[in-house]
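Aim 2 progress update. The chain analyzed this quarter is reproduced below.
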Amino acid sequence: MSLAADDAGLPDDPEFRAALVGYVEWGTRLALQNSQPDADVVEHAPVPRWGWGVAPPYQP
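Predicted structure tokens:
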């Protein structure tokens, strides 16, 4: 994702990249959890507010 961000011309500011990677990690973990055969998917789960800092991990 960092290479894609470079290709897209997104800022290389460390705080921005940390927030971007945090968002991607959150989405990846959620997708992995929800794609399990016995997953109890929460259709209207809250989405964290993203800003300059670390967001907490999703907890169902």
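Residues 9 and 25 are 20 Å apart (CA to CA). The chain is about 45% helix and 0% strand. These observations will guide the mutagenesis experiments scheduled for the next reporting period.
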